Amino acid sequence: MRLTKKLPALNVILFIATVGTTLIAGYFLSLPLARMGMFDKPWHGAIAFSLGVMGIIGSHELGHKLMADKRGIEASFPYFIPAPTFLGTFGAIIKMKTRPQDKNSLFDVGAAGPIGGFLVLLPVTALGIIWSTPITAEMLPEGTIALPDPLLFKAMGKLLLDIPEGTHLLLHPLAFAGWVGMLITMLNLMPVGVLDGGHITRALFGDRTLFRLSSVQVSSHRLVSLGGVLATALLGYWPMAILMLFFGTAGHPGPTNDNLPLSKGRKMIGVALFFLLVICAAPIRTLV
């Protein structure tokens, strides 16, 4: 990436706004924890949450950008998306302005984001879990929400903390940032449209016309994308599934050279990324 290239004003403004919304989200998350003595002031937790979330998302998007530059693909700087929600953000996106040359380049750009984010997600989550506190149900602050456990989060909790039977883990804001990172990783790896998972499956399986319904061409990638939408809905993320349905099933432009085969090493990485999707999946269930 050419460091001399000037950052567009919109990207900078959105980045600053997202820092602000994640700080606000972290502050309100930290208020009851500060009252319990987990840290001196709620701003301490707010800063930890914002740094964790922005670090995970930023490394994810930086992975895309650096790989796009390496493969000679013109791509925008990341557009961070601020959100006045308890998460503080809807993530970030970059836009490829030119098509990848072949399936290998397409795969590399799609895979670099989740891999880059995962490398930061692991230490963020580990440190956050270590700073978290096992407490009994009676000690839980009023309004506490129980989160669905991704397999990765659950395994890290058992590995890093001795959680007594019958207690709950009151998450440090940094641990919650790790949980948010796993959620973002899972959703991005769904094999839908031009999401990261869509790039990866398009490179892995190509895109051929299967049949036509009236004037609509039904391709293999479009069917895979519909499967990803269904999986997202079954996990309980209906708003995201609806967005995927409207914006993620219109097809994929693919690389300029669709004939060069994907390397065997990349196919193995594709399997590993599917496994990453599974262990980061957090199905929403009825919680009491």
Approximately how much beta-strand content do the residues carry?
5-15%
Oligomeric status of the shown chains?
single chain
Structural class: mainly alpha
Overall mean pLDDT score?
89
Looking at the structure, what is the overall shape?
globular
Order of helices and strands: HHEEHEHEHHEEHHH
What is the straight-line distance between the termini?
Answer: 48 Å
Approximate helicity band: 55-70%
Keywords:
single chain; 9 helices; mainly alpha; two-stranded antiparallel sheet; 56% helix; globular; 288 residues
Explained architecture:
This protein has 288 residues and is mainly alpha-helical. It has one domain. 56% of the residues lie in helices and 8% in strands. It is built from nine helices and six strands, in the order ααββαβαβααββααα. The chain has helices at 9-35, 42-70, 103-130, 151-160, 173-188, 196-205, 220-234, 238-247, 264-280; strands at residues 79-82, 89-93, 133-135, 168-170, 209-213, 216-219. The strands form three sheets. A two-stranded antiparallel ribbon has the order 1-2. A two-stranded antiparallel ribbon has the order 3-4. Strands 5-6 form a two-stranded antiparallel sheet. The model has no long low-confidence stretch (mean pLDDT 89).
SSE order and pairing:
Layout: H1 9-35, H2 42-70, E1 79-82, E2 89-93, H3 103-130, E3 133-135, H4 151-160, E4 168-170, H5 173-188, H6 196-205, E5 209-213, E6 216-219, H7 220-234, H8 238-247, H9 264-280
Antiparallel strand pairs: 1-2, 3-4, 5-6
